[in-house]
Amino acid sequence: MPPADANLTRESLERDHAPLMAALRSDLMAEGAAHERARIDAVRQQALPGHEALIDRLAMDGRTTGPEAAAAVLAAERTARQAAAAAHQADAPSPAPGAAAPADAPRDARSIAKSAVALLDGIRSPTK
User: Fold this and answer.
1) Which residues contact 1 (CB under 8 A, 6 or more apart)?
2) 22-75: per-residue pLDDT in tens?
3) Among the four 1, 61, 66, 114, which has the fewest Cβ within 10 Å?
């Protein structure tokens, strides 16, 4: 047994207290594995169709959290939608030119009203 005032190091604990170190190592490894599984599950829960490769990469990087994965998927989805909108806009045909007004169209409100009355009179009493 080392003196009470000696500095404890990993090596001295492994040498002098091997069963304790083995138990600690086993417990800490199990706890770390459980946290890593929970992190991977949190990342995988952020999956959206079309972003499976991104989710797989983030799940296996060992550091990305669920909220970080959600932000990454959202950014990728936004980029994909913007690219699709730009492609649709680029693929759209040119707008049709506007039609010119007929040359014989009445120009003022009085002549428009007279034309409307004449049209209605023709509908009410058709010529034979």
Assistant:
1) 16
2) 999 999 999 999 999 999 999 999 999 999 999 999 999 999 999 999 999 999
3) 1
Residue 126 reports pLDDT greater than 80: no
Q: What is the largest CA-CA distance in the chain?
A: 129
DSSP secondary structure, the chain, as one string: ---TTSPP-HHHHHHH-HHHHHHHHHHHHHHHHHHHHHHHHHHHTT--TT-HHHHHHHHTSS---HHHHHHHHHHHHHHHHHHHHHHHHHHSPPPPPPPPPPTTS--SHHHHHHHHHHHHHHHHS---
As given in the structure block, the two tokens for residue 115 are 């034309």
